[in-house]
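FORM 12-B: Structure-to-Sequence Request
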C-alpha cells in the first residue's frame, strides 16, 4: 500500500501565506513567483468562470480566491482538495474530491483512467484543475499547490506535532511495501509527531485482526479533513519560520507574491473556527470491476449554494 495523503497542506499553505510577506518584509510584490514549478493556471486556464454554469453570477461576483491542493504519489493524485477563501467573510471552505471520483474523458484508455486521480499523470495540474472545476459546476480555480509527501514529517515536526483524538487502534503491517510499512497508533488523544502523522495519513485498513475505516477510502477522506483542521489550528498557534522555509523549498505552486500579500493582509484574525471542510456528495459504486465515487450533481449544487450563500431562486444573500 503506497498511500501518502498530504492533507496537512491546507494548514501550512494558509499559514505560509500569512507569514511569507512578513518574513520577506514585503520588499517586492506583484507576480513574482514564490514557489518552484512551471505551470500557471491563470495563463493556461483563461476562462476561469464557466458562463454555462448555473452559478455563473455567484462565481463571477463573489470575492473569493480558490486554490487547488494536490498530494501526488507515483504520478497520480492521492489527495485532491479545493481551498476556497472568502475575503469578505474571512472564511475558508475546503472541498475534498475523493481520488476515485468517476470522471469520463475521451482520452481515457482504461477503466482506471476514468478516475479523476489519473488525470495528473497525463495533464498535470492544469488538466486536474479543469476536471475539478467541471465536477464543481464551473467553479473557478485561480491557483494550485502540489506537495511531495516527504515534506509531511518535516512540517509536522516543525509545528510541534498535530493533536488528534484517535478513535480506534490503527494497526497495519505490509512487509512487502518498499520500504516495509508498519502503522501502529493506539486509541486515544495524543499529539502525532511527523512519523506518526505519516502513518495516520497512510492508514486505510487494518491487519492482524485490527479494524480499518468502515467506509474505506471515504472514511480516510473524512479523517484527513479532521487532520487538516487540527493542523491549521496548530500552525496558527505558533511562530514558525521553519514552516515557511520548508514550504518554499518543497512546494510547487503558481501563487504569486502579490496575491500572498493580499491574502495576508486580509486574513488577520483568522483562526481554526473559520475553516469548514466538506466532501463532494456522491455514492460508492463499481464499474468494470473497479470502485468509483459517483458524484451527485444535485448534492453538489446544494453544497455550492450553501458555500456561496445563494438563495434557491438564484440570488445571493446579503
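FORM 12-B RESPONSE
SEQUENCE OUT:
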Amino acid at each position: 500500500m503506497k498511500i501518502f495523503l498530504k492533507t496537512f497542506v491546507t494548514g501550512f499553505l494558509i499559514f505560509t501565506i500569512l507569514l511569507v510577506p512578513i518574513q520577506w518584509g514585503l520588499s517586492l510584490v506583484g507576480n513574482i513567483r514564490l514557489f518552484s514549478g512551471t505551470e500557471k493556471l491563470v495563463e493556461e486556464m483563461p476562462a476561469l468562470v464557466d458562463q454555462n454554469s448555473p452559478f455563473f453570477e455567484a462565481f463571477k461576483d463573489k470575492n473569493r480566491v480558490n486554490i487547488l491542493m494536490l498530494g501526488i504519489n507515483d504520478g497520480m493524485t492521492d489527495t485532491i482538495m479545493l481551498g476556497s477563501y472568502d475575503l469578505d467573510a474571512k472564511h475558508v471552505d475546503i472541498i475534498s474530491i475523493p481520488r476515485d471520483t468517476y470522471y469520463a474523458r475521451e482520452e481515457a484508455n482504461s477503466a482506471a483512467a476514468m478516475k479523476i486521480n489519473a488525470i495528473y499523470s497525463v495533464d498535470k495540474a492544469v488538466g486536474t484543475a479543469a476536471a475539478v472545476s467541471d465536477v464543481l459546476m464551473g467553479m473557478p480555480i485561480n491557483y494550485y499547490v502540489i506537495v511531495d509527501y516527504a515534506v509531511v514529517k518535516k512540517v509536522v515536526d516543525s509545528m510541534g506535532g498535530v493533536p488528534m483524538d484517535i478513535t480506534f487502534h490503527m494497526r497495519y503491517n505490509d512487509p512487502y511495501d518498499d520500504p516495509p510499512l508498519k502503522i501502529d497508533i493506539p486509541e486515544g488523544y495524543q499529539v502525532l509527531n511527523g512519523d506518526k502523522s505519516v502513518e495516520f495519513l497512510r492508514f486505510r485498513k487494518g491487519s492482524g485482526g485490527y479494524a480499518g475505516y468502515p467506509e474505506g477510502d471515504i472514511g480516510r477522506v473524512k479523517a484527513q479533513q479532521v487532520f487538516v483542521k487540527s493542523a491549521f489550528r496548530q500552525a496558527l498557534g505558533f511562530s514558525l519560520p521553519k514552516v515557511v522555509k520548508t514550504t518554499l523549498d518543497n512546494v510547487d505552486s503558481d501563487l504569486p507574491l502579490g496575491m500572498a500579500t493580499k491574502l495576508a493582509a486580509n486574513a488577520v484574525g483568522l483562526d481554526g473556527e473559520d475553516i469548514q471542510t466538506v466532501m463532494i456528495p456522491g455514492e460508492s459504486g463499481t464499474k468494470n470491476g473497479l470502485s468509483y465515487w459517483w458524484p451527485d450533481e444535485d448534492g453538489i449544487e446544494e453544497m455550492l449554494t450553501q458555500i456561496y450563500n445563494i438563495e434557491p431562486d438564484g440570488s445571493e444573500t446579503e
